[in-house]
Specification:
10% strand; mainly alpha; single chain; 64% helix
C-alpha cells in the first residue's frame, strides 16, 4: 500500500507531464506566520489543509500576468518565527495544488462531455429543422404561409447549436486555462529557505 505522500507524488508526476515546455518562471514569497500560508478556518490535518485564499490567489494571478510558460519554481523565504519546516511547506503546497488541479481537470472534463452531448443533439435537431425548412420551401407555392415556416425552422435549428458551439469556440479555452494554472502549480519546484 502506498502512503499518502507516495500517492500524491505519483499524481503530481502525471500532472507535471501536462505542463508545457517554455521559459521557466520563478516566484518569490516571504512567509512570516501561519496565517500567511494556511487558511485560518481550516483545522484539518496538515497534509490536507488548504492554503490561504490570498496566497493561492496571488500565485494564480502571477501565472496569469507573467509570460513565462515553462516550469514554475516557488521560492519561499521563511521567517524565524514561522512555525513549520521547509519540508512541511513543500508538502502542504504540493498536496493542495494536486487536489485543486485534479478537481479543475475533472470539472473541465465533465463540462466538455456535457457540451459535446448538447452539440451532437443540436446538430441532429438542426438536420431535422433543415429538412422541415426544405419541405416548407418546396410547398410554399401551394401554401404561402409555408415560406415563413421555412425561414423560421432554419433559424431555430441554428439557434439551438449556438450555445454549445460558443463553448467550444470561446469558453472551453478559458476553462482549461484556469485548470492548467493549477496543474503548473501542482508540478512546481518548491524551494524554502529559513531566514537566519
Amino acid at each position: 500500500m502506498l502512503n499518502l505522500n507516495e500517492r500524491i507524488e505519483r499524481r503530481r508526476q502525471k500532472l507535471s507531464q501536462l505542463a508545457k515546455k517554455g521559459q521557466p518562471l520563478s516566484l518569490y514569497i516571504k512567509l512570516k506566520d501561519e496565517e500567511d500560508f494556511f487558511n485560518g478556518f481550516d483545522t484539518t490535518h496538515l497534509e490536507k489543509r488548504s492554503l490561504s485564499p490570498e496566497l493561492e490567489s496571488y500565485l494564480l494571478d502571477c501565472l496569469e500576468e507573467r509570460h513565462e510558460k515553462g516550469q514554475v519554481t516557488i521560492n519561499f523565504s521563511l521567517a524565524k518565527s514561522f512555525p513549520y519546516s521547509e519540508e512541511q511547506v513543500k508538502q502542504a503546497l504540493i498536496h493542495h495544488f494536486t487536489r485543486t488541479a485534479e478537481k479543475h481537470l475533472h470539472a473541465h472534463s465533465k463540462e466538455k462531455t456535457k457540451w459535446s452531448i448538447d452539440l451532437i443533439g443540436g446538430f441532429l435537431f438542426l438536420i431535422i429543422c433543415l429538412l422541415c425548412s426544405h419541405f416548407f420551401h418546396v410547398n410554399s407555392h401551394i401554401y404561402p404561409f409555408m415560406k415563413v415556416l421555412s425561414q423560421s425552422t432554419g433559424i431555430i435549428g441554428w439557434l439551438v447549436i449556438w450555445e454549445p458551439s460558443s463553448y467550444f469556440l470561446y469558453r472551453r479555452r478559458e476553462d482549461f486555462k484556469e485548470a492548467f494554472a493549477h496543474v503548473r502549480l501542482a508540478a512546481a519546484n518548491i524551494v524554502s529557505i529559513r531566514e537566519e
